[in-house]
Design a protein that fits this description.
Radius of gyration: 29 Å
Strand order of the largest sheet: 4-3-2-1-7
CATH topology of the largest domain: Arc Repressor Mutant, subunit A
CATH class of the largest domain: Mainly Alpha
Order of helices and strands: EEEEHHHEEEHHHEEHEEEH
Strand content: 15-25%
CATH superfamily of the largest domain: Winged helix-like DNA-binding domain superfamily/Winged helix DNA-binding domain
Helix content: 25-40%
Structural class: alpha+beta
Number of strands: 12
Number of domains: 2
Number of helices: 8
Shape: flat
């Protein structure tokens, strides 16, 4: 039974070897495990927008990762595929939605075995090239150059303005328009005051740590997250951090907010002569408390090490 391989911009995705292979020159580029898996997921869903959450679930399989893991992997793929991060011809960033691999740069290639030998990786045999052509996804070719159109001469046409309605009718129409505008403004004001939400910061565990203050960010019209749901998972890490920054005369402020399966976690470090800040988005943070603590402790200590030592 033939196996389907994906090729993007004439680079064949070869998962067993952990690399992509040029169908033109046979050149091989090695990629990281998750980078290669991310490329295969994008190719399998070419032409579709995949959200950050979907890509994280499909590629990292619910592992706790830093907020830069996905953007860094996308950057590495663009470099490997000879794409431009500014023009984004192949892999596009869709603001506030996710990422999309353009279908025009992606095609499927059939091969009769699970492993490609070096010769087959470099260039498919003629018979297999014919099969590949049969299974190739639609490719949008650049439009051919069109001759410049001849200049058009617009005839001299006299436009007759429409007859204006009588004055009383125009006055009634104007008053009706003003009434609609006022009603819309009142409705918008009521909606903003009744349905609109504002974020508030509520201090948690006040006085527990000598050099750390913790705030939960939540919408004013919603119940706050169960404190035990978050604090019980990282209290030992915060205790270790507090002991370290206390000896260095440094204070830390923590802000956190849970949105669905994502934890938005921000901390700011401040001493007499330096200050550092880090913003993290941690996906599926409830699944593995150990990885969550390791991530927060590692990143916090990294920022502490970057602080200038006060003389």
């Amino acid at each position: 039974m033939n196996k389907i391989y994906y090729a993007v911009n004439n680079w064949l995705i070869d998962l067993p070897s952990g690399s992509i292979i040029s169908l033109v020159s046979g050149e091989r580029k090695r990629l990281g495990e998750y980078q290669l898996k991310l490329l295969e997921v994008l190719a399998a869903n070419a032409g579709q927008i995949l959200t950050r959450e979907e890509l994280t679930t499909l590629v990292w399989e619910r592992r706790v990762i830093g907020n830069n893991s996905l953007p860094n992997a996308i950057h590495a793929l663009r470099t490997a595929l000879e794409d431009d991060g500014k023009k984004q011809k192949i892999i596009k960033t869709i603001p506030k939605k996710g990422y999309l691999l353009e279908q025009a740069w992606c095609r499927c290639v059939e091969h009769e075995s699970d492993e490609l030998d070096p010769a087959a990786r470099a260039a498919l045999p003629e018979e297999e090239e014919e099969k590949a052509e049969e299974t190739t996804l639609p490719v949008e070719l650049p439009p051919a150059e069109q001759p410049e159109p001849e200049a058009c001469v617009i005839p001299d046409v006299r436009v007759v303005p429409p007859a204006r309605p009588p004055f009383p009718q125009r006055l009634i129409g104007l008053l009706a328009l003003i009434a609609v505008v006022i009603a819309s403004a009142i409705a918008g004001w009521h909606y903003a005051n009744s349905q609109g939400s504002r974020l508030v910061a509520t201090e948690q565990e006040a006085g527990v740590y000598s050099n750390i203050r913790i705030y939960e960010i939540s919408e004013a019209n919603r119940l706050a997250m169960n404190k035990e749901d978050f604090y019980s998972k990282i209290k030992d890490t915060l205790y270790a951090v507090n002991q370290q920054i206390k000896s260095q005369s440094t204070t830390m402020t923590v802000y956190y907010q849970s949105v669905d399966q994502t934890l938005n976690y921000t901390f700011a470090l401040r001493s007499k002569c330096a200050k550092k800040q880090l913003v993290m988005a941690i996906y599926h943070w409830r699944i593995n408390p150990t990885q969550l603590n390791n991530l927060i402790l590692r990143e916090t200590r990294r920022k502490i090490s970057e602080m200038e030592v006060c003389s």
